[in-house]
Structures are given as structure tokens and as C-alpha cells.
UniProtKB/TrEMBL annotation:
CDD domains for the chain: Ig (cd00096)
PANTHER family: DEFECTIVE PROBOSCIS EXTENSION RESPONSE 12, ISOFORM C (PTHR23279:SF45), DEFECTIVE PROBOSCIS EXTENSION RESPONSE DPR -RELATED (PTHR23279)
Native organism: Spodoptera litura (Asian cotton leafworm)
Keywords: Membrane, Transmembrane, Transmembrane helix
Keyword Transmembrane helix assigned: yes
GO terms for biological process, alphabetical: synapse organization
GO cellular component terms, A-Z: neuron projection membrane
Underlying gene: LOC111350374
Residue ranges constituting the Ig-like domain according to the UniProt record: 58-156, 166-258
This protein's record includes keyword Nucleotide-binding: no
Transmembrane annotation, as ranges: 278-301
InterPro entries assigned to the protein according to its UniProt record, in alphabetical order: Ig-like_dom, Ig-like_dom_sf, Ig-like_fold, Ig_sub, Ig_sub2, Ig_V-set, Zig-8
Name under which the protein is recorded: Hemicentin-2-like isoform X1
Length: 302
């Protein structure tokens, strides 16, 4: 009787140990699924960010207190913050204040900052008191107050300034494979740009190639617009044309892609290596599914 009990105990112990190993393997297999799901969420967030539209730059009439307007300006460009003041008395005064540090930037036509990028524009007889900011930087982002002193008190209008940085991206994946003697064709898109760039520059390994007369066979075509497109064409690709290609415009985040120029057999070998990796991933996933199925069947039959 005691021997039979020992045998049952050992059998249950082996089953418990086996199930523990299977559970650990199943958890290990599920970890990449969780990581992949999290990565997709981040990717969608980036895609939504690319749907930005440039705003307008409105003027505001300071007849009501605490009014707010919003404007956008491109990094490195000029921002114009308008404030319309009607029937300003002789003793009245218009001041511009930066809210983030409560710095009085101007009073009347006089500026009170060492930053020469700031200037007040006001013509004789005009109702517009415009704060001009040249070569805007990211730190200029924020709220500015146009404060008007009147006989009855202070009237304020607030302008929210948003600095946008245009972004560039090259169509396709991070790698581009071509055969020797063929044509390298790359397309760069520049977006989030209130003012479309007139020129897009292409670099090969940090060397500008837009006007490379030595190499020859290189053309660049740019179409400015809401989504500026620039097309780079390199004819008669050689091994020397391999490397990193970057497109960039003024005050724009650049984009890069790596180009591999090789003979047909080398290109096929690279493709076969990628396919082998994909098959290995599928085999691993199949093993994980078998482990999960065995665990479910075990608990279902108990």
C-alpha cells in the first residue's frame, strides 16, 4: 500500500514539473506578442501626428477683454502677432508681454529686450500693433499678451504662438536594393511646412550631389506644395553609389535611407537570407501554439 502511494506521488510530481515547464515556455512565447502590440500603438501615434494642418494667422480687435487667437510659424521663419487697437487715447499705451517669464518685450514702439529678433510694427494712424519675431526658435513657443491701458483699466488680448518644424521622409523602407547598371530612384516628401521649401538638397554619405557634375547622370526634380516632393534619379548605378542618402530642406528634420548596389546574385542572396529569417520566425510561432494547445487539452481533460 505504501509503495503504491509513493508511485502515485512520484507520478503527480512529474506531471506538475512538466506542466510548470510548459507554462514557462508559453509565457516566454507570448512576450513578443505583447511587445509587438505596444510597438504598433506607438507607430499609429506617429502616423496621426503626420496629419497636421497649418493654421492661419488672425488679427484681433481689442474691444473685449481676455480674447485669444492662435497662430503658427515655421522654425527659422518670421512670426507676426497682430493686435488691433481702435480709438487709443493719447495717454493710452500698448505693451507686449511674454507670459512664460512675464518679460515686458515692448511698450509703445520701444522694445525692452536685448534680443534683436523682436520688433514692434506700427504705422502712423494704423490700429495694428504687431509684434514681429524674426528667425523664430522652438523656445519662442508659448503665449504672448497684448496689454492695452485705457481710462477705465487694462484690456488684454492673448496670442498663442506655435512653432512647427517641417519633417522629411523618404518613401519605402530603410533599405533600397538595386542592381549594378540600373537606376536609383528615390522620392522625398516634406510636410508640416506652412511655407513650402523652394529647394530640397540630397546628400550621398554627407556630400551634396544635387549639382554633382563629376559623377554625371544625377537629376533632382522638386515640386513645392502642401506636401513638397523631391525626386532623386541616379542613372548607371555602380558599387560606389552604395551608401547613405539623405534629403533635407531649410529648417527641416532630414530623412535618410541606405542604398545597396550589388550584382544580381548578391541581391538574391540577401533576399534568401531574409526569407530564411522569416521561416525561422514562423517555426518558432508554431512551436508556441503547440505548447499552448497541449496545456489547454491537459486542463480540459482533468
Amino acid at each position: 500500500m505504501r509503495r503504491r502511494s509513493n508511485q502515485l506521488f512520484k507520478m503527480r510530481w512529474r506531471q506538475t514539473g512538466s506542466m510548470g515547464i510548459q507554462l514557462a515556455a508559453a509565457i516566454f512565447c507570448m512576450l513578443p506578442l505583447y511587445t509587438s502590440s505596444t510597438g504598433d500603438i506607438r507607430h499609429h501615434g506617429i502616423s496621426r501626428a503626420r496629419g497636421w494642418r497649418a493654421g492661419v494667422q488672425p488679427s484681433a480687435d481689442v474691444t473685449a477683454n481676455n480674447t485669444v487667437s492662435n497662430i503658427t510659424a515655421q522654425l527659422g521663419g518670421t512670426a507676426y502677432l497682430h493686435c488691433l487697437v481702435g480709438h487709443l487715447s493719447e495717454r493710452g499705451q500698448v505693451s507686449w508681454i511674454r507670459k512664460r517669464d512675464w518679460h515686458i518685450l515692448s511698450s509703445g514702439k520701444f522694445t525692452y529686450t536685448n534680443d534683436e529678433r523682436f520688433q514692434v510694427l506700427h504705422g502712423e494712424g494704423s490700429e495694428d500693433w504687431t509684434l514681429q519675431i524674426k528667425f523664430v526658435q522652438k523656445r519662442d513657443n508659448g503665449t504672448y499678451e497684448c496689454q492695452v491701458s485705457t481710462r477705465t483699466g487694462i484690456v488684454s488680448h492673448y496670442v498663442r504662438l506655435q512653432i512647427v518644424v517641417p519633417e522629411a521622409f523618404i518613401l519605402g523602407s530603410g533599405e533600397h536594393h538595386v542592381d549594378m547598371g540600373s537606376v536609383i530612384h528615390l522620392i522625398c516628401i516634406v510636410e508640416k511646412s506652412p511655407t513650402p521649401p523652394q529647394y530640397v538638397f540630397w546628400y550621398h554619405n554627407d556630400r551634396m550631389i544635387n549639382y554633382d557634375a563629376t559623377r554625371g547622370g544625377i537629376t533632382v526634380e522638386t515640386e513645392p506644395g502642401a506636401r513638397t516632393q523631391s525626386r532623386l534619379t541616379v542613372r548607371g548605378a555602380t558599387l560606389k553609389d552604395s551608401g547613405n542618402y539623405t534629403c533635407s530642406a531649410s529648417n527641416t528634420e532630414p530623412a535618410s535611407i541606405h542604398v545597396f548596389v550589388s550584382e544580381g546574385s548578391n541581391k538574391m542572396a540577401a533576399i534568401l537570407r531574409r526569407n530564411t529569417s522569416a521561416i525561422h520566425g514562423i517555426t518558432t510561432s508554431g512551436t508556441c501554439l503547440l505548447l499552448l494547445t497541449s496545456i489547454l487539452l491537459h486542463f480540459g481533460l482533468r
